[in-house]
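Follow-up to my earlier ticket, as requested here are the two runs.
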Amino acid sequence: MNLAGNTLNKTGDGTIAINNILAIGGGMLNCNQGTCSGSGQISGDVNNSGGTISPGNSPGVMDVSGDFNQGENGTLSIELAGTTVGEQYDLLSIGGTADLQGTLSLVLLDGFQPSVGDSFDILEFGSLSGGFERIDLPALAGGLSWDLGQLYESGTVTVVPEPTTMGLLVWAFACLAWSRMSPGPGTSPQLRPTM
């Protein structure tokens, strides 16, 4: 489909799936309501003013060659069902600028439970401005949490141990190291001359 410079407005509660090439030609795809999904290529700009952008067809990659703007009422929904990008989890690839507001929602599919160290490259962008106002994260197994430290750098989210778990591990290793260095009962510490 070629918009020839016109704007395609998605309204209503339904879903539009873009699975081929949508040539914008100077126009824009405006997702006002409902869901804009698919594993196609949008050769132009996308504005998510109040709908939901859901890359792929559970899951997949949506490729936007131009700019991507998400307003405060928009949602980017990313599905995770494994650790292989495009096949088991979603990616929104933006060739231009990603101007982010609104909500990022991560959704686990098919009983998938991420493990420590699992990393998901959910966003690619040429440049970035703004940031999500709300991030909805699914619950993880006990002792695990989400690390969003690289979300606005490389578009990556990672599963890490919970801070309390990490603190206990550091404390345990410190105690173990101290017990190995300290002398046992009834022995005197060995003194080494200093230079």
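Run two:
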Amino acid sequence: MDVTSGRAEVIIGLIDGPVADHPDLTRSIRQVPGQVAACSPGSESCAHGTFVAGILSARRGARAPAICPGCTLLVRPIFAAGKVGVGSIPTTTSHELAEAIVECLEGGARILNVSAAVAHAHGAGAYKLTEALDWAVRKGAVVVAASGNQGVVGSSAITRHRGVIPVVSYSRAGRPLSGSNLGASIARRGLGAPGEAIKSLACDGGSFRSGGTSTAAPFVTGTIALIWSVFPAVPAASIRLALATSAGRSRGVVPPLLNAWSAYQVMTVMPRR
């Protein structure tokens, strides 16, 4: 974060709830064309989206991590209504998530941040979701997804895909939080990131603390955005290699902890073609 605040050309697709007009958010936030989802009073969906947006796109010095305020945040609301809880993983359909992924990619997103569980991912919907994730890989994009907070061991239609980096929430002591979903595919391709008592933005213009894998995922997304801002020409495979090399080996079903600075250092010495 001392090296860069991000570049506007690096577009992050935020597939989440709607984002409130908070005074601490930067002006580099736009919405996918044709998608209108206003924040209503007391909406937990809006609270979820605004909280995650603050981690990524609050201005530096705000009451939030503010990892990449110079990057462009492309918001694609996927659960505009209902009570989802900021620390939980909201549920969507595989068909809706697939559409959101495609729309963000068409909008120029290079990184996608997904904090949504998929209900009943089977049949045509699951096939469409796989197609969308496959297209993201072909486009050279990186999909970062929260692993979920059900405290189970296993994978989902999202976290088992080869193009996805699943993220587990870690405590301040450097251990996975008990509610985080774990699994072999999550450990093999995923990362752990801060997910305990994180402060970010609230819909009412203030801030509050929350945690969980939805909170952890944007730390990985923001790290990728910052690295791509410094090294804009490198392919997604190089970013993945730098993250994996710097984090180290996984432990069974538990992914290693993100090491953002080490990943940046790996990029500085990585051969350029």
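The only thing I checked on run two: The mean pLDDT is 91. Let me know what else you need.
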